[in-house]
């Protein structure tokens, strides 16, 4: 078995692992990222609310509070540097009872202590001036102008691509089966390869406890907390401008209603602790609850405009805080575990925090040729006529519309396939271009996208999958035609 040696190995190519890898790449290091799935952004990072939280919810003094606020402050500049969708739309936490004023005041004071700027307590009428669609039941609200929305795929992919162009090696379909202590570092075994590094970063999401427990006597337990969502058609996206929360409960920030950066409307998530760390199925009860509770916040929630539903898993740890540290009895092994909400917001700051810890313990010289910027895939749907004509002149494939709902062209799909860490699956193309995310949910475009993937990757069309092993579309040939 071939042994691959690196200075640092990051396990997990979600938003946390990708942020860490990018920050580590600013120094002269050999870095690898090991990811069990067929693509980056396949776990928690792909199925969440897409919220850049302002930072008023986390308990003051915790890592969660500190990195939430830092990450929120980094998000706008990072979105411009790495070219992914982000909008500071503000957030509103609503209360339906006068008794909730005490809790709103507590959130306000938390936010003040955490360093959140511009917080205001509003009456129900003042809140409805900002958001006319708010329910008449709302009697008071907390307004946070620094709250935002972000494309979770866009952020994760941008971080990973930028890490890759700066020399980080990504190994996909590479599940870690065993980690062993060795002289000077850690031996990491996968199905087909052996890796070694003196420094390991555990950013494995809901599986972070399993990896931690391979090297430490102080055991960790991560619970998968399932959240179910309903996504509504773009024609509904203007119902509210801000992200509308309800007062949080012990299990999370509650059901929200929010516009997305792409113009849809989202309701969710529920919160259910489950044993199955692959349990991303939706339930009729969960989806009905998400819509019913969301409808209490917003008048005339357009439930008949739901175009899809999905579920994601949050990596919940009993301490209610992020666990980001060098493991006491495993020198060189760094946990980035329990990164539940607001993990997406905090990711850029988590990357900096972990990189600083590693630099302090295992110093490396500054990289003089680090590439800090990245350009995303051109979006024909949002381009003006001049930009569209320029793209078509460069490549006529930008005139060939493949996804009608989202106006995604063949040129964009080609870019998604051939750029760093390019798409190899239907879901990979979907996350990078939005082909298949519209009202028909890929009913029209998926056969053409599969055909393009097979052609460009030089594969038989039967080898193309939705999201990796076990998700093939086609099962064999019937009279010479793949079916």
How far apart lie the N and C ends?
A: 37 Å
Approximate helicity band = 25-40%
C-alpha Rg (nearest Å)? 22 Å
Q: How are the strands of the largest sheet arranged?
A: 10-3-2-14-22-21
Estimated structural class? alpha+beta
- Biggest β-sheet strands, sense, barrel: 6 strands, mixed
Q: What is the count of β-strands?
A: 26
Output the number of helix runs.
Answer: 12
Q: Which of globular, elongated, flat, extended, rod-shaped describes the shape? A: globular
Q: Uncertain runs with pLDDT below 50, 5 residues or more?
A: none
Strand fraction: 15-25%
What keywords describe this structure?
483 residues, alpha+beta, six-stranded mixed β-sheet, five-stranded antiparallel β-sheet, 26 strands, 30% helix, 23% strand, globular
